[in-house]
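Recap quiz, item 2
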Amino acid sequence: MKFIDEFRNSKIAKNISGAIFNKSLGMKSINLMEVCGTHTMSISRFGIRRMLPSNVNLLSGPGCPVCVTPKSYIDRAIAFSNLPGIIIATFGDMMRVPGSYSSLMEERSKGRSVRVVYSALDAIDIAEKTTAKDVIFLGIGFETTAPTVAASLVDAKKKGLDNFFVYAGHKVILPAMKALAEDREVNIDGFLCPAHVSAIIGTAPYDIIAGRYNIPCVVAGFEPLDILQGLLMLIEQVKSKKKKTVKNQYKRVVKRSGNKKALSLIEKVFSRGDSEWRGMGRIAESGLYLNKRYSRFDAERAFSLPRIRTMPDKGCICGEVLKGIKTPFECKLFDRDCNPDRPQGACMVSSEGTCAAYYRDRQ
Amino acid sequence: MRKITLAHGSGGSSMQDLIRDLFIKNLGNPLLNKLGDSALIDIGDKKLAYTTDSYVINPIFFPGGDIGKLSVCGTVNDLAVCGARPRYLSLGIIVEEGLDYHDLERIVLSIRYTCSKAGVNIVTGDFKVVEKGGVDKIFINTAGIGEILKGSRLSRNYIKPGDKIIVNGTIGDHAAAIVMARGELRFKSRLFSDCAPLNSLVSSIMCRGIRFMRDPTRGGLATTLNEITPSSGYNIRIDESEVPVKESVRALCEILGFDPLYMANEGKLVAVVSSRVASKILSLMKAHPLGRNSKIIGEVEEAKDKRVYLKTRIGGTRILDVLRGEQLPRIC
């Protein structure tokens, strides 16, 4: 496959892996966090962990949209699905995430109308074809999905659709990275920054991480050679005594200023607000909510829900796992009460979640 | 209250648990407990293979096949991979009222054509119509009986370290064609299901050196390999770059975040063969129209943690686990 296979060349991979071994020789342990879930997924899919020396630790960060979506969001999404005349449209990964009492997949088997879509625009399609029902799209994800949801809302407004709604749960990544950098428990030597999110926001926003917290950042693509090279670039910076900076491995896609069109779409539709992250708590200015001009599409305004008591996670250490403080092996539930068939926490649900990745690789 | 979800039917671990905890627990007997693609039965001095399968698919017509062709191929293949020559099939059809007569006719003609290609006959049948909503358009069940071929002696117990794993062509074609045929994606492709009866391919290669065969349908190649390892007692190592996947299928998988190793096939078999005869079997398979793209994709290893390992395209290694739940498209 063109433009893919070039970045999966086994000879080059072996060379970069060799360079990583050389560079990190004699260094104490190096903790590198891949912020984005797609990196986590790629690392496990291509078996990259086994190509690294034992002193290089990869920590999976809070960039898996499903993993950081709080349980209360799932509970409310399920409550929406139980209202009469509602179709829930969602990305597939959300289906199996357990809420306090049920999951969307269970609700679908009870006869609730829950449809898997590939983009918010598909949800618009459903709304146009089923005018007798109201379609609520579960808007989760980071700056990668936010522009397409924004575009769908602009489209819905133009078409005058009155049966399309978004339950806004979008998040932005930088405040979470800052929270991690400030957390004293967390010990991160370098951030492997997301590919797609950076294509939207650019590399400039990470300057604050390198500048204020002295943690090097490398934006890397999702292909295995991208990741290996990105890790090598991080280790070089960790080793060097020079001031830490933001470097861009993924120049073929990511520009310093990002994608201005996408950013202005986000600006047009959303406003910032505090947001709850599963396991990390409330992070200021980390959520995207529909602004005044688009508030009529806001599912939370349009429909009133009964009070829902969200049950706390029992024994689940997703939060510490998301911060990279603990590995899934340190969780009492891991591989006992919690496995991909019966996930307790979100990190086990999504195939890009840390626990699911560790589960696949368990010995 | 526990409910049955789609994951219970997707061929992965949820379904395996259900089979063990509900069906085997209540209906188990020595023949059923083997959980083969077919049951192997001795009647008098005849050795027979017996199997059944139900077919539900949306859409009922798709590039490369239809529910009729599928319902013949699936049962024929389950018999064939057990080393049997498929002979007789039963056919049970349940139709939702309102189905076009013409569609039903097309399906029956397709069944007739596929049966003649596979050399089997439908010898008994049943037809029912239910109210609108009772089923989705049409559900078909077939059962089949076959005679065990001479020289066939297949069991996971015969698998030994050093044995080679062969697959008869590109994987994931069927699932990819179905995903596209549902028309939910806003792009077009020329993907065709690989749906085909495999019995003539099997009889062209059958010999003592073949230890075991399976058709990797639901759950795909990865799930099938994981069904082999526990009872063989050995590990399997697969080389990802040797696994044949069509460019178009790979591209679709990249877009949706699917893994072709978990995508269903309807005209593929996985054979575990002794290394002594591997190259002979490979060339026999390549000479058959349904095996032109056959490849040796890996081998059985001495190590005994009963896992399937994948050597990835870039030279890394990972465990190839069974499918968990449904394969769902990812977010970003």
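The CA atoms of residues 73 and 104 of chain B lie 18 Å apart.
The domain at 156-319 of chain B is CATH 3.90.650.10 (Phosphoribosyl-aminoimidazole Synthetase; Chain A, domain 2).
End of item.
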